[in-house]
Amino acid sequence: MILVDPVFNPNFAGQISSATKLGPGITIAKFLGAYGDRTPFDFVGDETTRLSIARQLYLQSEMMQVINNNIELFNDVRLIVSEGIYRAGPTETLSGDCEKKNKGQLIYYQVINQEGTIDFEKTFEIAEYWKDYTTYEKIILDYDTYNPDGSLTAQIGVEMPVVGETFDANFSNNVETVYNNVLQSANELVEIKES
Predict the structure, then answer these.
(1) What is the DSSP string of 108-171?
(2) Which of 21, 86, 107, 180 has the fewest CB atoms found within 10 Å of its own CB?
(3) The pTM is what?
């Protein structure tokens, strides 16, 4: 069972909207897509589904706070949501990771340095820190070279177990590393460096 801060418990929030607070300085809006590609929260029609998503995102906000509050190790970087809540297309049937993103179970983050670029070393360090000091379903250290110029990018996927009204959950604490969508390691985080 997760101890939920009553100030930010979605169960007590009343109407759930993009402005619903999940933690200090963290609202649901933070998880509504990537920069420049926001997903409006009004696509979620019923309040029960919104509340379920808010519970899942509360867990994500806790993960963010672990990093944001650790100024000794992570003061020089910030986490941004690179893949947030997923909105299916009109004829799309959700499954796999897209379904998890749609429910707020899986969120991807990039670690950005003071120059505004991905900090690869800190990305690995944050994934390791989360692995060692938090609970989760799965952490995915995800590298790719899909940019048009072939440059390396990195992000961290954080998958949480499904939680209900009581916030009871079983955490598997699995980790994996992928490169260009190919599994590199199923049991450990592997740092891939720019060449």
Answers:
(1) EEEEE-TTSSB-HHHHHHHHHHHHHH---SEEEEEEE--STT---EEEEEEE-----TT-----
(2) 180
(3) 0.94
Please give the torsion angle defined by the CA atoms of residues 130, 32, 118 and 195, in that order, rounded to the nearest 10 degrees. 90
Q: Which two tokens stand for residue 7?
A: 């100030």
> For the chain, what are the domain ranges?
10-185
Tell me the pLDDT band of 89, cut-offs 50, 70 and 90: confident
In this structure, are residues 102 and 56 in contact, taking their beta carbons and an 8 Å threshold? no
Distance of alpha carbon 145 from alpha carbon 179, whole angstroms: 8
- Taking the C-alpha atoms of residue 69 and residue 53, their distance in angstroms, rounded to an integer, is 24
Phi, psi of 30 (to 5 degrees): -60, -25
**How many C-alpha atoms does 168 have within 13 Å on its Cβ side?**
1
Q: Give yes or no for a contact between 121 and 97, defined as CB atoms under 8 angstroms apart.
A: no
